Amino acid sequence: MLARLGLPLSLLLFAALASLLIALGVGSAQISPGQIWEVALSHIGQGEGDALARTMVMELRLPRALSAFAVGGLLAVAGALMQVLLRNPLADPYVLGLSGGASIGALAAMLGGLGGLAISSSAFGGALFSTFLVFGLAHGSGGWTPSRLLLTGVVVAAGWGAVITLMLAMSPAERLPGMLYWLMGDLSYARTPWPPLLLLLATCVVLIPLGRSLNVLARGPQQAAALGVAVRPLEWCIYIVASLLTAAAVTTAGSIGFVGLVVPHMLRLLLGNDQRLILPACALAGGTLLVLADTLARTMIAPEQLPVGVITALLGVPTFLFLLYRSR
């Protein structure tokens, strides 16, 4: 069992480290692996690296690369959990309207002239509000089912989309570029990677022991209940955790699409349906994908930068169509 899990996870870990090395070295000024090593030694007091290289690596590229890895991992894990909860391989982290709620919170803060932490806090609050709203409407006076939750989320997301369009139409012209960049997903101002990284690590540590129960739940609630799984508490746990992961990701980088949809779907085709393998694999593969996409976004038309959400969409659409074609 350990050998079966270890090989793919080891390969994905190697790919993640390679993507981070590429992100640190590639940019407006190229930094060689030797210089990166010197910077790492100087950071721990074992040598003196080039001052410019140290500033570029430690203050600019490393925080952004780690933020991209954390956001990609959070979205991929949240997507995998949503697909288990809704028993739908086409579900993604945004299907229940969380990104819309976060977007309204962030755009409202921007319209109010706020910035930085206030925008992130408003986005997180909007995402949590949307979470409770969807759950409350789907639950109603009785219980909720995956189909009812999905339909409620789709309707709420459509409502948030209308409100976002109204806010953009009424916004001053000078604020529109920043608002549009946030909506498309942007890591330019992501400088605090440790909270989302710690959240990603803690989530994987907590969820991996629940892998067997998640495997049974993916086959249907009746079979899971017959095998002794506490179905309703487990579904609540999945919904809350997936919502929290999505809220943290959107707060850090805005709405970045297709990572939470394509990565779990691709890994499930390659590695099977064992959640004990899929969840940590999603964390590594999602992080790797977004790090490479962000590196491409900031170098493709340098010195200008593209929103990373544009790159993930350009990569995600043909990839997902190809996976659908192969899975027939």
Compose a concise summary of this entry.
The chain has 328 residues and is mainly α. It is 76% helix and 0% strand. It has helices at 2-25, 33-43, 51-86, 98-111, 117-139, 146-170, 176-184, 194-207, 211-217, 221-226, 231-253, 259-271, 275-299, 308-326.
General description of the model:
- With 328 residues, the protein is an all-alpha fold.
- It has one domain (2-18, 70-326): ABC transporter involved in vitamin B12 uptake, BtuC, CATH 1.10.3470.
- It is built from 14 helices and no strands.
- It has helices at 2-25, 33-43, 51-86, 98-111, 117-139, 146-170, 176-184, 194-207, 211-217, 221-226, 231-253, 259-271, 275-299, 308-326.
- The longest helix is centred in the first third of the chain and has 36 residues, at 51-86.
- The two termini are 29 Å apart.
- The relative contact order is 0.16.
- The model has no long low-confidence stretch (mean pLDDT 85).
In total, how many domains does the architecture comprise?
Answer: 1
Beta-strand content estimate: under 5%
| String of helices and strands | HHHHHHHHHHHHHH
Might you state the CATH topology name?
A: ABC transporter involved in vitamin B12 uptake, BtuC
